[in-house]
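User: I'm putting together notes for a lab meeting next week and I want to include a structural view of one of the chains we've been expressing. I don't have a solved structure, so I'd like a prediction I can at least talk through. The sequence is below, exactly as it appears in our construct file.
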Amino acid sequence: MQTEASEQWDYVLVAQRHTQRDPRQARQQQFLEELRRKGFHIKVIRDQKQVFFGIRADNSVFGLYRTLLLEPEGPAPHAELAAPTTIPVTTSLRIRIVNFVVMNNKTSAGETFEDLMKDGVFEARFPLHKGEGRLKKTWARWRHMFREQPVDEIRNYFGEKVALYFVWLGWYTYMLVPAALTGLLVFLSGFSLFEASQISKEICEAHDILMCPLGDHSRRYQRLSETCTFAKLTHLFDNDGTVVFAIFMALWATVFLEIWKRQRARVVLHWDLYVWDEEQEEMALQLINCPDYKLRPYQHSYLRSTVILVLTLLMICLMIGMAHVLVVYRVLASALFSSSAVPFLEEQVTTAVVVTGALVHYVTIIIMTKINRCVALKLCDFEMPRTFSERESRFTIRFFTLQFFTHFSSLIYIAFILGRINGHPGKSTRLAGLWKLEECHASGCMMDLFVQMAIIMGLKQTLSNCVEYLVPWVTHKCRSLRASESGHLPRDPELRDWRRNYLLNPVNTFSLFDEFMEMMIQYGFTTIFVAAFPLAPLLALFSNLVEIRLDAIKMVWLQRRLVPRKAKDIGTWLQVLETIGVLAVIANGMVIAFTSEFIPRVVYKYRYSPCLKEGNSTVDCLKGYVNHSLSVFHTKDFQDPDGIEGSENVTLCRYRDYRNPPDYNFSEQFWFLLAIRLAFVILFEHVALCIKLIAAWFVPDIPQSVKNKVLEVKYQRLREKMWHGRQRLGGVGAGSRPPMPAHPTPASIFSARSTDV
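Assistant: Thanks for the context. Below is the predicted structure for the 757-residue chain, given as structure tokens.
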């Protein structure tokens, strides 16, 4: 009996021992006494430095919970009808009720638990890890990386919200397989044409074409043939397969979301949560905490919404400003590296600027993430949401919006602005009138975007995962070592268990939120700008295989137990995924049109190609494209021609643009190409969005089998109500009792499987 009683202590509060000898003890006891008054039992165990308060709810609390959420099946209560909807008292339910009451409990002075924690009255609160041994053996180990996840066991231990995260992450990883293979195929197809590309051949053989100096750091003419290697590398991801892959990824994103909705419907039906109402449960918990709870109606303030909108726009402007700071860095770094004593930096200034710029951007992301979180929380507090779920939803939208601009502002600059506002060699646009703006790489802007994507995504998938695992592991080891230095090992097994849980890393309300945010940003990198980096799905696949076990190990081995929460979907994250899908179509269409060389190549092939003039099928239709795509600049028009090395023997140089000397205005070809680019963007986006809409229509959100099961349950319940109603009226026309369905109801099927630990 003693063991059974001790197992009911699922939730623990912790306070420092010295608080028992100062005025804070009175506030502590007042808070605990308020919990006792609400039907909660408290057990106090004192250690050398901490005091632990075990909390459990009385059976009357669970009885009230059942009464509030149990929906009667007929006009009068019948045991046989109520049985399928009986709510089992599981550990998850006990923890959820205790946690809600603790967080909403108030003393007579109006102090909440958060207020008492800020004043040091309490130090921590957490549910206890109990019965996690099976999850440790079958799930939270690196060697189980390719094993199917025990979703039902995860749900029984951590609750539906955590389980849905792992179901979604597993499904996302599974769906990445075709995307990764297709991206790898597109990348490898570039290898097959590594030596056969007509454009690469012309660049490698262009020993007599001199390129104009790219910037102030490069005061010498460069032979076009010197960019031969980069031209071949660019062809790996800037080829005709890029367009097909971009359309494929638009279709993939839609199919992924539609099939996920079907998968979610099956899982929710399996868990008997199909008709569960989050608002109803939250109101029930509020009434358990305070019988005099007054309902907070929905409210909307246009003034408050306007203030939040203005503040959000200001933060977005700050994110865009951070992108300009990176621009300034790249300009100043160009000047610094050009005067470096290191020969490699002096020769490869552009490459060094691109690489270091990506690293600076990564550090900026880490810093701004912390700032964005604080700003998003302040905005949510100012908005005063009605419930916790509403607060979480609004926080998700605010935080993701800020994070999106933090992560992608630099990529947007490189893809659509870099090298396009620089003027021409004779009249360059300068920053503060001093430093010339950075040019694209000599092989094209697509190389800059590819390098930026590869570095940022590579760092996020490798360095971030290492930090995500090592920091909690090292922190837990340090906490354990400090505790063991005292040499005191409690004899009470219950105290040892509570102390072991206390030494684990703390978690907060948004611990699972952080995991979702990490995956959403990765999903953005996997779909947005994927035309410039077809290996993104492959990197995401490898990362997710690690991420699943990494999160499992953190939750089971290194962190305190998360408070189980009910959920029947992934909430606002679904709208985030749909938004990313639409943005991916727009961004990839613009990358193909304005960043890659696809449109100029197609226009040249069908308007200026030698195939049109000679009618010879043996001639490569892209022959002469390189010379056609380079504009001519007279060296005498330089502002300081004598300052360029070797200028005395050079009268002409070439640069990537479509301008005509001597005034160097845009040529007719430039405007024709611009019209074709805009037309392609419109056509690409409409075709891709139509494909998305057709795919969304073709694949129903909810499987017919799920609809039929729910329909059958409703029908049988109505038959039961009709039968009992006629029985109550004296049996007139009652007939025989309707037979039970051939397939039991979801409640009767799965309530028995929900054996919580």
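A couple of points you could mention at the meeting. The first strand starts at residue 11 and ends at 16. Residues 1-6, 71-85, 742-757 have pLDDT under 50 and may be disordered.

User: Perfect, that's what I needed.
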